[in-house]
Amino acid sequence: MRGSRTDARRRRHFRVRKSVHGTAQRPRLAVFRSNRYIYAQVIDDESGRTLAAASSQEEALRSRTLTVETATEVGKSVARRAKDVGVEAVVFDRGGFKFHGRIKAVADAAREEGLTL
């Protein structure tokens, strides 16, 4: 029997994670998308700490539906917070999702705010 879509995404994510590793100088910008919300975290994998995070569940965005515009706001927010803690460059972890639509919107918005991907 074939696995579910979620299992396939997890397998893709494990494959991506073999080569994508965040350091203190260049942490990982990890993105997760559910059907209702989108989440972004800047993670230092060496110390296992989340340096900055943003999601569409936050008070300002919670009432909005998940669209490319909402994902753009999350991307800008996480980039601002990352720069506040001194992060200038990150490696992008798409979480096994295709790099288009809302996932791409987060990355593009982070680039717009001055984060190097």
Please outline the helices and strands:
Elements: H1 5-17, E1 28-33, E2 38-44, E3 49-55, H2 68-84, E4 91-93, H3 101-112
Parallel strand pairs: 1-4
Antiparallel strand pairs: 1-2, 2-3
Helix pairs in contact: 2-3
What report would you give on this structure?
The radius of gyration is 14 Å and the shape is globular. The longest helix is centred in the middle third of the chain and has 17 residues, at 68-84. A four-stranded mixed beta sheet has the order 3-2-1-4. α2 (68-84) packs parallel to α3 (101-112). The chain has three helices and four strands, in the order αβββαβα. The model has no long low-confidence stretch (mean pLDDT 94). The protein is 36% helix and 20% strand. It is α+β, with helices and mostly antiparallel strands and 117 residues long. The protein has a single domain, classed as Nucleotidyltransferase, domain 5 (2-Layer Sandwich), CATH 3.30.420.100.
